Amino acid sequence: MLVDSHCHLDFPELAADLAGVVSRMGDNGVTHALTISTTLETFPAVRGVARSLPNVWCTAGVHPDERRDGREASLEELLSMADDPDVVGIGETGLDYFRVEGDTGWQRERFRTHIRAARACGKPLVIHTRAAAADTLAIMREEGAREAGGVMHCFTETWEVASAAMDLGFLISFSGIVTFKNAADLKEVARRVPLDRMLVETDSPYLAPVPHRGKPNQPAFVRHVAEEVARLRGIGFEEVAQATTRNFFSLFRNARA
Questions:
Q1: Average pLDDT over every residue of 76-92
Q2: Confidence at 53, pLDDT banded by 50, 70, 90
Q3: Percent of the chain's residues with pLDDT above 70
Q4: Does a structural domain hold residue 257?
Q5: Quick one: pLDDT at residue 101?
Q6: Residues 6+ apart with CB under 8 A from 92
Q7: What is the pTM for the complete model shown?
Q8: What is the CATH number of the domain that holds 54?
Q9: What is the span of the domain harbouring residue 54?
């Protein structure tokens, strides 16, 4: 049994063939998935996917660099979105300075609002950080993110960042990037993170792992991520699959296997 802890089943690349996506998950032993909210506008579609499929849940939130909504989600709105049995987490949220120029204060305020929502509703955070690790960790500390807990999704940072996040009670999630040949530093992080502190994901339809690079990603491919983590650690695939599945349900307590 494997869980894809982060995918985007409402995105066109996957939504156009959802039955096929689910079938291929089954063929590869991927039994559960978490589909992630990125905008207010598309949240109903995200929730709709979760409601329509067994063993699929969703989150409520707005991606750090997403501006298409034209407004910010209030704390009250996020709590209303989270008040649904299919919503098991808040996010994806965090900070992403990679594609943003000029003032980034709006990102930090959005992140703070999401952390406050997670603490208020008792559901864990799904955190995205890119080119902003120091600020991400600082805000997590300032806003008491430890109280909510959560996961650093699609992790690509250093061991020092991973260690700091784990000190705050967060799990580390590895995506297809860990299979890339040029990801030597990330491979070392995957060797060092304790098995009971990690998740695996696809972030599909992006970041397809080896041997599918250049193709649209899909939840079935999370198997390749788990296989690479097992190879790096010198342990069996089943040990990684069992541990990451157990970790998922321990973190996302409102999800039911």
A1: 98
A2: very high
A3: 100
A4: no
A5: 75
A6: 6, 36, 37, 38, 59, 61, 63, 64, 126, 127, 128, 153
A7: 0.97
A8: 3.20.20.140
A9: 2-251
